[in-house]
Amino acid sequence: MKVAKFGGSSVANAEQLRKVANIIQDDRERKVIVVSAPGKRFSEDTKVTDLLIELGDAYLKNEPYDSKLQKILDRFQEITTELQISDRVIKEIEDGIHSILSSDDSDALKMDALKATGEDSLAKVLSVYLQSLGLKAAYLNPKNAGIFVSDNPGSAQILDESYEHLYKLRNRDDIVVIPGFFGYTLDGKLITFSRGGSDITGSIVAAGVRADLYENFTDVDSVYCVNPNIVENPKEITSLTYKEMRELSYAGFSVFHDEALIPAFKADIPVCIKNTNNPQGMGTIIVAQKAAQPNPVVGIASDTGFVSIYVSKYLMNRELGFGRKLLTILEDEGISFEHTPSGIDDISVIVRESRMPKDKEERVIARIKKELKPDTVHVDRDLALIMVVGEGMDSTVGLADKATHAFAKANVNLEMINQGSSEVSMMFGIKASKVNESVRALYEMFFQ
Amino acid sequence: MKVAKFGGSSVANAEQLRKVANIIQDDRERKVIVVSAPGKRFSEDTKVTDLLIELGDAYLKNEPYDSKLQKILDRFQEITTELQISDRVIKEIEDGIHSILSSDDSDALKMDALKATGEDSLAKVLSVYLQSLGLKAAYLNPKNAGIFVSDNPGSAQILDESYEHLYKLRNRDDIVVIPGFFGYTLDGKLITFSRGGSDITGSIVAAGVRADLYENFTDVDSVYCVNPNIVENPKEITSLTYKEMRELSYAGFSVFHDEALIPAFKADIPVCIKNTNNPQGMGTIIVAQKAAQPNPVVGIASDTGFVSIYVSKYLMNRELGFGRKLLTILEDEGISFEHTPSGIDDISVIVRESRMPKDKEERVIARIKKELKPDTVHVDRDLALIMVVGEGMDSTVGLADKATHAFAKANVNLEMINQGSSEVSMMFGIKASKVNESVRALYEMFFQ
Questions:
Q1: Residues in chain B within 8 Å Cβ distance of A398
Q2: Which of A50, B9, B214, B421 has the fewest beta carbons closer than 10 A?
Q3: Which domain holds residue B361?
Q4: What is the CATH number of the domain that holds A99?
Q5: B18-43 tens-digit pLDDT
Q6: Is A334 found in the same domain as A281?
Q7: Distance, in angstroms, between B206 CA and closest chain A CA?
Q8: How far apart are CA B110 and CA B122, in angstroms?
């Protein structure tokens, strides 16, 4: 049994939905379908969920929202017309929205229900379309599927009993189409997951039904081993472990929210990334473990926007608690740190610039000076982190050698090397201006 | 004006003291001499200070100590006889010891005064000897030199006003011989520095008189760039910065207590290591800054006896305060950590095995499991750290490349790489069994 989830671009319009239907028909094991709301049809387009949020905002501010509502209805109308299916669902959508807005629920619950309308409506449209093609298919509301969540509007947490309910889907002989992104509290309130939550639904459903495979249909053929904006036509990754994918996601590598995969990960369900526009392609499969590969490196990820707080003090390593006090100062300001390379008399803390705006930075520096009395403290800006990732890293002699050689060839100074905790990655810090040549040099070293 | 300090092996017997006298006569700028107590004359010998400690212990336990006293007196008798100088000083030593033991002072103060007898007596003997050679030389007691310290028996802290007093030594035209290792409180009590304190005295005196050079005479020609027990006849280091020396000392590289140099460091006095047995040799000079060298690497240090506590937890980097809590657990047990390489979902803490005996380790692991609820936690043993040190490290592309290549050539897996905080060193973690081949490979890479 396979669970297939289709992302926003895969369900953006009628043309895409025809491809979706073909994919479902191509494999009889694709019994459970999870869908997002229609995404962008072209780059300047607006996603349906964003249209719904705009509608909700206007409503909350007591501004007129009729034209926004019409835009939403038009999007679905366009689909039903082109797919030549009944447009009865358009009236359902309109009535549903009015009903949400005029209910007694809190504003937070209203917004959640509104946001979920995109997925919910698309699921209905798709099930009608599949039926029109002669398939035994049915729309299944998350409440009836048993997707129960905590009462946290906008960031639902799945309740464990949901998995038992979902398992019963195995008994059905039809194709079920479930809208992603939301669930229900035990007392019947609609609550959405965090943004990108169709991935979360898909993963939960795949874990619940104990699927043989969870297929995540998106708009790229595979996960590439390096950012295709930096290296043209990079090699595709055939298979990744969960660990490798998480390390790569950290440095900006994501095709999807890596956290969304946790339920599938815990249930040991293999996940396959595939392209709706090229469904015959092999895609990239993500598994718990894989056999050792000839190439111990699976991918190179990079991200800019890091800064480093450097603190030095003669005989620092004799002061018990120095490092801990430094981290406490950051924690008090709510700044999570990324890494802390340390020397004997100095320590650096690497932080995402976005987590430390100017006012926080000033307070942090002032506290460091006052409480730790360092010899020097300064902030180095414009850092980028590059991760070289692969399960083979732990036991392969010479990988650090190759990696550092690549940087040397590209004439890039290494500001930081951090290796030894993670068993599947090596991290390098460089000046952000040097990212492209570094990544290209590493690609050449490890993939060519 | 130069300050010359002579260590225990340099003043162990008459033969050594003849060399000391020659060294002093060779350079008229050597005006202030600081001396240790006589050290070992041969490897199974006992240092005079240890004989004094044995005497003190016997006295405190009300055991007979006459034979121990005689051994001490015999050591000095041997010297005065061979140097053909008056043995009047032997009577002074004996009377002095009796006077200390029978005084009203506390046991702690008595022990300090007893321990200091070796340096004090040797200083007297040397000054008499120099006079016998026709030099204008005088013994100078630390009280009269103005070396004032805090009231902490066994770990005196210098009081700042001492420096002003010491500066007046510049006005003298004779050679002064000052015993190292002790000073006086403002109310006249004799207090010793921590063990190895003659280095501290020498450094303080050099800073006080604003010497042009502080010469530390010992029994090696220079500081070598690598441990001569691992690489035969290694290259000698001509010059080191204070920072480089401190990094090298960290990993077991010390010729002396690097902390002892702090006063000289703060006063910007250059320090030169020389060999009493080969005084014409260039030695190694230690300075605040030096010009860029052709070889950016100045030395390689290594030390075994490290362990690594490895903790992993999925989504660790989302838990604000995780790293800080881990460090707090170690701090509560009084365990200072050396380094913390961290990944996204894991962190390692490198600790000296000597700081974490079995019982502490068990408590630490138990607390980590209970308070942090990790996915895994384990201790990796038998680690060694290797430091590649040099002021050129910060701005030289390709050093990490060369270093990692050396390890790869030696077929050594790198457990950890830590670079980026210290601007003058790169640290590598390896299995302790691989230290020798690693150090040799690095030596070959950087020094041949």
A1: 404, 408
A2: A50
A3: 299-447
A4: 3.40.1160.10
A5: 999 999 999 999 999 999 999 999 98
A6: no
A7: 20
A8: 19
